[in-house]
Design brief:
Elements (H helix, E strand, L loop, with lengths): L7 H11 L7 E3 L80 E6 L4 E4 L7 H4 L1 E10 L12 E7 L7 E6 L10 E8 L2 E10 L8 E8 L2 E6 L2 E7 L14 E3 L9 E10 L5 H13 L2 H6 L4 E5 L8 E2 L8 E4 L3 E6 L4
The chain binds calcium ion (2 copies).
One calcium ion binds next to loops.
Amino acid sequence: MHRSLATALPLLVCLSCGSGAPSSGRADAAAGGNGIGGVGGGATGGDGGARAGTGGSAGGGTAGGGGSAGSTSAGRGGGGATAGNGGNAGGGRGGGATAGSGGSAMINSAPIFNGSTGYVEIPDADVFSESTTGALSVEAWLRPDSLTMPNAESSGYVHWMGKGTNGQHEWVARMYQQGNSEDRANRISFYSFNLTGGLGAGSYFQDTVVVNQWIHYVGTFDDTRTYIFKNGVMRDSDLLSDYTIVPMNGTAPVRIGTRDMNSFFQGSIARVAIYNVRLTEQQIAAHYAAKVAGNYDQVVIAEPSLVAFYKLDESSGTVAIDAKGGRNGTYRGGVQLAAADWAPP
Ligand SMILES: [Ca+2]
Ligand SMILES: [Ca+2]
């Protein structure tokens, strides 16, 4: 079981319904209290915390595959970047590159979210809802800078990306923090909800998380199941029917760095991509390999099912460019642009 809450009211409902649930993957949409967990069955892909983390040190010197230099600060000196469409590169960190429609200059730059106020907001659109086509995939790279982020909610987790507000819940990405009351430290998960919130269906992996190390994440679902992938490998899948989830098209914005201001992510998030299909394991493995090989952006842009692509590599301004669909987002709350280097794990 895997539950959490959305509001005080559903909390009561959820607490009672949790005990009989057979499988893992449930979570409440609301900010309310989280239920008791457990590793639950039903996993297709290696549930539970058994697997070791990727370990290793995130330490310097990992070369960014995408062409800009590997060491952390290379490329930031120049300034004078020219932004494309909406980008507003302004000087500073550009390194002299000329940006295209992505509006940024540093190929591997990524923003740092401060864990308390910073996020990106993208207005609601049909392409962000599973029900538009019957499938949706959400892909991102995340680099947690803490295992005890200061603004957690409920049992001790943060929502680091999602589309959900009160009564308008659709999907969310979550990371549990050290010391959470459900013994789920390091769990990273993805959930699908009914608009009303309450219990959602979801999938997760729970490995050692290394601070400052990048993780490739894909959460995907259709009308039948949720799936989660880490670093190109499927780790878990769960049935929507276990929790009677029927995905719908709500009105909430998509947010990166938070879902609905009840918790905030501390660290960096890069390359958020949304697709109107359920990406296959082969596609996701190919994306991960492309990052290592240095042609990630090209591979993502070439996917016919891509509907939005936020590289989050802007170096100034408040516009988070959508390099695919033109549905630009807005940086809010003091996001530090181009403050991190997006590097493969
Ligand atoms: Ca599961
Ligand atoms: Ca909508």
